[in-house]
Amino acid sequence: MNAERVTLETLRDLADATIRSAAERPGSVDFWRKPLLVSARADDRFSLLKKIAAHDHLLPGELLESVKSVIVFFIPFRKFLQEENSVGKFPCRNWGLAYQETNPLIGEVSIRIRSFLETAGYGSALTPATHNFDPVALRARWSHKHLGYIAGLGRFGINAQLITPSGCAGRLGSLVTEADLGDHPLVESGELCLHKQGKECLRCLTRCPVSALGVDGIDRKRCWTRLKVNITSSKGLSGLEKNTHVCGKCVVGLPCSMDPV
Description:
alpha+beta
């Protein structure tokens, strides 16, 4: 084993380099800001997943029997993309394109980290970036958001999204590994949602075009129905991949969209 080669800073640099490389490809639009990445020991804290995410949510040890650590990362979107998507009731085309391009990018980041860890002698395992959810319950069996919450990447907002130190407008990925990386949270206490801090906000509720959000949670079926309507009925998303189920109105134009702390 080459434990001395494996540090959080090395993994963060790998994630950043992968994203910068993708942004520089011919024809690519640079949708992404510098990523955030945390690790947490795969201990009993993660048993909470079956309560706060889904009763059949996988535990880290079910993905990799010899697991020691969970890695979660967040790829925040740039300001111009957030501003474009703040307009109107339907998502802008670039929001759909960013979704299409970010899905494989999450895979690239995960695979590059996995490959690096494997050269150091540590096995790893990962899951798809999206569409790994129960189509009836509309809950993921491997929720990057809930893993990020437990690992200290962020805190949940009223919009049911994970708010990180770089906001909530972006995408998440995760993997597990045999490497013992320790706990390296970015958020250890307190809330990042203004309403949960006892301050006036709730702007995310009014931004949802179908009123799927409430102070007590999200109407998942109403939200999912809207995502399917968007790809079939929005001219802005015309011609994009059929599984481009996007909206994003509840994560843009908010105090927590970018750099809330």
